[in-house]
Write a structure and sequence with these properties.
The chain has helices spanning about 30-55, 60-80, 80-90, 95-130, and strands at about 10-15, 25-30. By secondary structure, it is α+β, with helices and mostly antiparallel strands. Helix 1 packs across helix 4. The protein is flat, with a radius of gyration of 18 Å.
Length: about 130
């Protein structure tokens, strides 16, 4: 019998707490096959813009580009609703939000997205090799 294993959905939660004890819990559900490439491209774009912004700290246009790119990347990885909830929780303080959220993305979500993508690529290569 031919058997196919479906790519697993990544499910994670993150809890954010402010100084008054208010909490926001976000539930992140990711289909890695849908967002892997887009998330990687957007993360590289954000890192490149960060480097440029460090070299030109007074460039307002560059700062806006960095903010827009960061927001796009957050929406891709966390989802638009979670990103909007975080913006509300952080009272539109994008810098504070990014400082708190990026470790969750880079240390928890992104490695799982990469691992899932690599596994899917291996399965694809195996199937292609066996079908020759």
């Amino acid at each position: 019998m031919y058997e196919v294993k479906k790519t697993e959905t990544i499910k994670e939660q993150a809890r954010f707490t402010d100084s008054q004890g208010n909490e926001l819990v976000i539930n992140v559900i990711i289909n890695p096959m849908v967002i892997a490439r887009k998330a990687s491209v957007e993360l590289v774009e954000v890192r490149d813009l960060q480097k440029k912004a460090k070299m030109s700290p007074n460039d307002v246009r560059l700062a806006e580009e960095l903010g827009d790119a960061t927001l796009r990347m957050l929406e891709t990885v966390l989802g638009a609703n979670n990103t909007q909830s975080l913006m509300h929780f952080y009272e539109e303080d994008m810098l504070a939000m990014v400082m708190d959220v990026m470790p969750f993305i880079l240390e928890v979500l992104y490695p799982k997205i990469l691992a899932s993508s690599k596994e899917a690529a291996k399965r694809t290569r195996r199937r292609h090799f066996l079908n020759r």
